[in-house]
Amino acid sequence: MRLVHGCWQYPALVEKQLLTYLHAREVNEKRFTMFKQLKKFTGALRGPSVEERELSYLNGSVDRIDLEYRQRQIDRGLFRSGF
Predict the structure, then answer these.
(1) pLDDT bucket at 64, cuts 50 / 70 / 90
(2) How far apart are CA 4 and CA 67, in angstroms?
(3) Same domain, 51 and 37
(4) Per-residue pLDDT tens over the stretch 31-61
(5) What DSSP state is assigned to residue 59?
(6) What's the CA angle centered on 60, arms 55 and 66, to 5 degrees?
(7) Those residues with Cβ within 8 angstroms of residue 4's Cβ, 6 or more apart along the chain or in another chain
C-alpha cells in the first residue's frame, strides 16, 4: 500500500465512505419501490401531455414544408387552446 495524502489509512477511509454511500442508496431504493410502481401505474392511466402531442404532431410531417406548416400551427396555439 502506498502513502497517499500523508496517510496510510486513506484507502480504508475511502472504502468505508463508499460502503456507507452504497448502503444508504440501497435503503432508499427499497423504500421507494412502492412509489415507483405507483408512478408507473398512474403514468399509464394519464393522457399525453401537450408537449407530447405537439412532438408527435411534428414527427408526423412528411417533408420540410409540411414541418414548417405544422410548426406555425403549433405557434398559433393549435394544442394550447382549451377544450
Answers:
(1) very high
(2) 59
(3) no
(4) 667 677 788 888 788 888 888 899 999 999 9
(5) H
(6) 105
(7) 10, 11
